[in-house]
Amino acid sequence: MEDKAESDEEWNYQFLEELVEDVEENQNIRQCIECGKCIGECPASKISDFNIRKIIQKILRGDKSVLKDSDIWYCFLCERCKRVCPKKGVNIPLLILNLRNESFKKGYGPQYNDLTKYVEMAENFLTNGTVLEDPLDGSLSKERIDELNEICNFARIKYVFKASEASKAYKKKIHKKRVKK
Amino acid sequence: MEINNLAINLEEIEKRYENPLDFFRGKKLCLFKACLEKYFPGVRFGIHDFLEELGLEVTICQNQSCCSGTFFQRNLITRAQFAAINERNINEINHQADILLVSCNGCYNSLLRGRDFLKDDIVRKKTQDILNEVKEKMGSEKYHGQYDILENPKLRIIHDLDFFYLIREELVNTLKFSLKGIKIAVHYGCHYLNLDRDKDTNTYLKDKTKLEELIRLFGGVPIDYQERESCCGWGASQIVIHPDDALKVTYKKLKSAENVNACFILMPCPTCLYTLSKPEFRERIHKIFNDELEIPTIHLNELIAILRGCEEEQCITLRRKSPRFDQIYAHITEE
Predict the structure, then answer these.
(1) Does the beta-carbon distance from A144 to B75 stay under 8 Å?
(2) Is A9-105 a domain of CATH 1.10.1060.10?
(3) How far is A36 from chain B (nearest CA, A)?
(4) For chain A, is the Cβ count within 10 Å smaller at the N or the C terminus?
C-alpha cells in the first residue's frame, strides 16, 4: 500500500513559501521528522484538538484550510515544543504566530467581540503604558504615551482601542436617551 | 550590525569572580517594572529591599512601558512594533543603568525575544523605520541615540532567580529564618524553563534546578511532582480566552503538588503566581472539578523577604494570600 506521506504529489510548498516570505525561519519546518515529541509535551494538545504535527503536514501539502482552524488559537506559546524538538531551528511558536497573522488578514481570526478581554488591556497600554488600570508606579508621561501610540500606528491594538471608544460613546448615547425618557 | 541578546552570562561571572556579588558592586542596577507586580508588590519589595541592604545602587526607570508581550502573542502588534517597544525600553534603561533585573518570566522573554527579532534584517529595518517616525513626531531627542537600535549596549539583563542563585552564599548570610525542613514544590514557568537560547551551549541560564538548590540552602526540602514542568495555565492569555479549558492545566498542576503534600509552590514569576493563586480561578476550579484546592503559592522574592525577617505586610500581598499562608508565615518566623 502506498504511504501517503511519501508520495511526491502530496507535497506542495507554495503555501510554505508564502509563510517563509514573511518569516524566513519558517523554512526550517521542512526538517520536521514527525516524531511527535512536541505533541506529547504540548499543553494545548491536552485540552483541545491543537496538533502541531497535523498543522505542519497541512502546510507542507499547501492546505490553507489550516488558517480557518480554530485550533491554531489554542497554542499556549509556551515554547515547550521548541525545547523538545530534536531538530535545530524549528520554531513552532513563531510559525503559529505567523499563521494567526495570515488568518487575521483573511478575516478568519477572532472578531472584535472575541477580543473583548483585550479591549481593557489595549486601552490601558495606550493610555497609561501598562496592561492594568492604576499601575503600581503611576502612568507614563503624556510624551511617552505619544511614543507608544506612534509605534502602534496601524496595528490591530489601535483598532481594538478605537472600537472600544466607539462602543463606549454608543453606550453613553443610549444611556443619555434613557435618562431623558 | 551586531545584535546581542544582552543576557548576563552566569558561567562567566562565576569564573571571573570569587564572590559574584563583586560583579554588581559599583554598577547601577534597575528593576524592570512588571505589570502584575501591582497585585503582588512584595515581589518588587523583596528584591529592592535586599539590594539596598547590600548597599547596591538601585533605581526604577520611570519611562519604561509594559513589555507588550501580551499584545504580540495575540497578534495585536507586529514583530517590528514589538521590537520597537522593546528597544525603546532598553534604550531608556540603558541610558540610566548598567544591569536590569527582571522579576517576571514574560517580561524576561520579551526583552530577549525583542532583541532576537532584530537579528532579522527585514524586521530590523522596519523597527528602525518605526523608531525614526517616532523621532520625527517627537521633534528631538532627549539624549543622543534615543530612538536608535542599540548596537552592543552596555546594559545587561538578568532574571531575579538567576541573580539570587548567583549570589546565594551572600544571600543566605542575610537570612533571619530558615525553612525548617518544610516540603516545597517548585514551578519555574514556561518562559524560564523552555528558553532554548541556551539549549546547545549551556551558557547563561545553565541548569534549571536553581529553585531546588535555593530551597535546600534555605533549609527546606524540594519535593518533586508529576507536573513540575507543566504550564501554570496562563498560556499567552489562554486563561482569559478559553478559561474553562486552560483551568484544566492549572488544576492538574495544583492537584499534582497537593498530592505530594507540598506546603506551598514556589515560583519566580508574578504572571504564574497570578494564575495559580487568583481566588476567582480557584473558585472556578472548585466548581468545574468539584475539588477545593488550598495549596498556597509564593514568588521567590516574597519568600526571601519573609526569610530575611521583613514585615509581613511588605512581603506578601494581603489581598492575595490564603489563610493557609498565615500558618506557613507563622511557622517560618517562629523564634
Answers:
(1) no
(2) yes
(3) 17
(4) N
How does strand B156-159 pair with strand B183-186? unpaired
Interface pTM, i.e. ipTM: 0.91
* C-alpha distances out from residue B193 to B50, B187, B278, Å: 25, 9, 22
Give per-residue pLDDT as tens, A107-144: 888 776 677 788 889 999 999 999 999 898 899 999 99
Where are chain A's structural domains? 9-105, 112-180
Contact list, B37 vs chain A (CB under 8 Å): 136
What is the Cα B17 distance to its own chain's centre? 24
Under 8 Å CB pairs connecting chains A and B tally to 145
Neighbours of A175 (CB within 10 A): 10
**Nearest CB to B235 within list A76, A140, A143:** A76
Domains observed in chain B: 10-158 (1.20.1050.140), 177-333 (3.40.50.11810)
